[in-house]
Amino acid sequence: MNSLSLKLALRFVFARKRAMSMSLLGIVFGIAFFVVTQAQTSGFEVFFIRTILGTNGSIRVSDRFQDLDGTVSKVSKDGSARFIFRSRENARYVEGIEYPQIVRQALEDFPQVSGISEILEGTAVLDSGSRKHVVQVHGLRIKDHLMVSDLENQVIHGSVERLASDRSGVLVGSRIAERLRLEPGDRVTLIGGTENEQLRVSGIFETGVSQIDKNRLYLDLSTLRSFLGKPFGGSVFQVSVKDPDAVAGIAAQMQETIGHRVVGWQEREKVWLEVFKALRVSSAITVSSILLLSGLGMFNVFAIMVIEKSRDVAILRSMGFTPRDVSAVFLWQGGIVLFAGILLGSALGFLTTYGISRIPLRIRGIFSTDSFVVNWDLSHYLWAALISTLFVGVASWIPARRAARIEPAKIIRETL
User: Fold this and answer.
1) Which residues are CB-neighbours of 107 under 8 A, at least 6 positions away?
2) Residues whose CB falls within 8 Å of the CB of residue 229, separated by 6 or more in sequence, listed in order
3) Running DSSP on this structure, what letter comes out for residue 244?
4) By three-state DSSP, how is residue 234 classified?
5) SS3 call for 112
6) Which of 12, 48, 76, 352 sits between 20 and 30 A of 208, alpha carbons compared?
7) Whole-structure pTM over 0.90, yes or no?
8) If we measure between CA atoms, which residue out of 10, 351, 145, 375 comes closest to residue 155?
9) Which runs of consecutive H residues, i.e. helices, occur in 155-309?
10) Tell me, what's the pLDDT at 72?
11) Would you say 122 and 193 are in contact if contact means Cβ atoms under 8 Å apart?
12) C-alpha–C-alpha distance, residues 140 and 55, integer Å
């Protein structure tokens, strides 16, 4: 009976081509729009995460706590340990890391750590001779910093090799260079420390994060210590890990172990991550309404079809079809339209997503891109298929159940 039910379903589908085509188009466009919107919103989110990880790293280790309230260890359902660090409100702390070598050795014992960069931060004034600009100065060892950042790829003029070979070299943010009209090789003066420091521009970098590009400088750690008069301590660590998604648990363990404030990138960028999440959920709900309307349209088509085909259903029942077989005819109709809609909708979503990714779009603010950013993720297609299956399944099941309840004797008497 299953093959016969399928053949009858195909015949019923092609008998109402216009109505079925409208339902099919609704599913196709609903799936395509769902895939495209999710690819865009998640694409920008993934690109933002990649930007902040490449600029500020996965984990930041800074001040040492002096007044601690201990720790609490929990075990999750899957058996993995979770660590929660608690410190007293208004706890005292020592600014920066007093003993970098000891803390570095402790951090290196964590198997998840893939890179550690010591950074000394300060504020100064950069003088190009014609203009001055207040800047945030980051002193670092360039070889270590390349292990925890994407700085090498962010340099748009000059190179990091120049900074590595020149202790008086400096990497300048693109917005600073634009304001002061700087080029690689230009001489600048850093003002504000124990004495003015003469520097040479080794390169110009652009992260796309406007607050960084218009305020930040990178120079050698020993040079900045001399400039600020801080021969020891006061620095922070930027740490990269093998699995950035597991940073929350790793940061808690680090904080418990070394007694310093440790902040993961999820906590540091919580506001922006919540914004991206809200946009992604909002777009999914909005676009899903198209699939809902398609399901309602299909429900109306099937409901009318049950009324129109009552005599045919009665004849099938009298020929030996069971209520289950009759119900299968209408469910097969929904399945046929759904299957075609998923295939065509996924194909249209893929092609549209590719086309959008080629559209030029210059963005400078929280990240830097010159085109639409999309995220190619199979889960977008699976979620679209799941939502459409839910709506179409309900739209098919209710009329199919009604058709299965038709009494053949009653229908035949009424038509005589």
Assistant:
1) 61, 113, 116, 237, 239, 254, 258
2) 193, 194
3) G
4) coil
5) coil
6) 352
7) no
8) 145
9) 160-165, 174-180, 210-213, 221-228, 247-258, 265-268, 270-308
10) 47
11) yes
12) 13
- 35 Cβ contact list (under 8 Å, min separation 6): 345, 346, 349, 350, 352, 353, 380, 381, 384
For residue 218, list its beta bridge partners: 138, 171
Cα–Cα dist 415/410, whole Å:
9
**Cα Rg of the chain (Å, integer):** 32
Tokens (6 digits) for 245: 């998604």
Token readout for 197 is: 């420091």
Rounded CA separation 171/152 (Å): 11
Say which amino acid occupies 50: R
229 φ, ψ (degrees, to nearest 5)? 70, 35
d(CA 223, CA 221): 5
Going from N- to C-terminal start, the domains of the chain cover: 2-53+272-415, 121-236
Distance CA 94, CA 97 (A): 8
pLDDT tens for residues 343-401?
999 999 999 999 988 888 777 666 667 778 888 999 999 999 999 888 888 888 887 77
- Please report, as a single letter, which amino acid is at residue 152: E
Q: Is the dihedral of CA 264, 269, 274, 279 positive or negative?
A: negative
Residue bearing tokens 């709900």: 285
Residue 411 Cα to chain centre, angstroms: 58
pLDDT given for residue 190 in this prediction = 94
Conformational region of residue 158, where left means phi above 0, alpha means psi within -120 to 50, and beta covers everything else: left
CB-count exposure of residue 384 (10 Å: 0-12, 13-18, 19+): buried
* Best CATH choice for the domain 121-236 from the list 1.20.1070, 1.10.390, 2.40.40, 3.40.50: 2.40.40
Are 240 and 57 contacting, i.e. CB atoms less than 8 angstroms apart?
yes
Give residue-wise pLDDT tens across range 313-328: 666 766 667 777 777 8
Structure tokens of 329?
Answer: 């005819």
Residue 117: both structure tokens together: 């960069």
Can you name the residues that pair with 261 across neighbouring β-strands? none
Q: Which two tokens stand for residue 124?
A: 């100064």
State the CB neighbour count (10 A cutoff) for residue 242: 12
